[in-house]
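Aim 2 progress update. The chain analyzed this quarter is reproduced below.
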Amino acid sequence: MAEPKKKKIISADTGEDVTNEKRKQAVVEAKPVGNATGLRIGAAILWLLAITFEVLALLVLYGKIDMKFMPGLYQIILFIVLDLICLVIGSQLWKKSNHIAPASKKNPTLFWLHNNLGLIVTVVAFVPLIILILTNKEADKKTKTIATVVAVIALLLGGVSSYDFNPISLEEQQAAEQVITGSVYWSPYGKVYHTHDDCQALNQSEQLTTGDVDQAIAAGRTRLCSFCAKRDAIDTEGLLTDNVDVSDYIPEETVEDVEDEAEEEPAA
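Predicted structure tokens:
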């Protein structure tokens, strides 16, 4: 088994190196993780711009506007690319806002729609454009073929980047806040946060960020590491955890020690 790498730990609040500071078990007095309302307003503005560029592409297609310094096909491609850029950035802002202020999961349909509003905007921003390009009788075959291919690629890229593969609900966020009050740690990659910087899942991580659980969730780390949950004897009901069978990885005596400690702990 590879030796654990020496880690550098960065504060989520200040961005400073806190590797040598005493940080374990300390309750974090964290800065606000961001303004969800501001992010959502920014996303809405960018999505509106994306729809505007879609309309401009259609106006070029139907000969209503013409920038003389480039061919019509290039103009259409330019507006499709600008449409995609605005859409993707807007969707990232929307997903970020949902990690700061998540929606309730009481209504699963509304929860899905709220988290994937960017995907709906993607459909609006490209599907009508694709249909109108294909059904346009005045455009030449080359223009229709190339413009359609570019628009379909933009649709796929926008859809993948807008879909939230890692949503978290208000109930899950509140449960995490109640259960985990100290520092947590996360690596530059992945979707998991840890309550221990020496967790075996982090053995190959050279740099970690530390903050409170809200900061971890805002950074897209929405699931608690199963190793850490088992190690701390945390009841994960209502929490998102990574789907790992910790008993396959943690030595049996360690699991028993954790369980014994939990049993010996006096009732509140």
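Strands lie at 8-11, 184-186, 192-193, 207-211, 223-224. Confidence is low (pLDDT under 50) at residues 22-31, 244-268. These observations will guide the mutagenesis experiments scheduled for the next reporting period.
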